[in-house]
# Entry
Amino acid sequence: CRICKQTFLDAPNLALEKILSCIAFPCKYGVNGCPESIFLPSRLQHETVCQFRPVSCQFEHHGCEQVFSVKDMFWHHKMCKYAHYPHQNILPKMPTRNKSKISQDPVRHNGDISPSLTQ
# Structure
């Protein structure tokens, strides 16, 4: 301390912590629109579930770089251009598959007549 020349301890200041626990602080996502004021002991809990916290799109690994608040992400996922599979940047262009043709020759299985599949 510059006034009394004593050294500060690394121990917690219990009196200050008690005072701070009685004061409600704004959510750190208030700039994103969160109107909540939270008491210090429960602040971390609120901020981990806050609907205004920013999150990256779940299709980030496909190339989407958008970041929205949790409450708005539902609408983004409905419109995200990276939400449709297969993604051309992930899978190579696959050849189209010919559908199997049903031949006209019947084949008997256990007394039933069913058409055979040929490729």
Q: What stands out?
A: Residues 40-49 form the longest helix (10 residues). The beta strands are 24-26, 37-39, 54-56, 67-69, 101-109, 112-118. The CA atoms of residues 21 and 41 lie 6 Å apart. The mean pLDDT is 77.
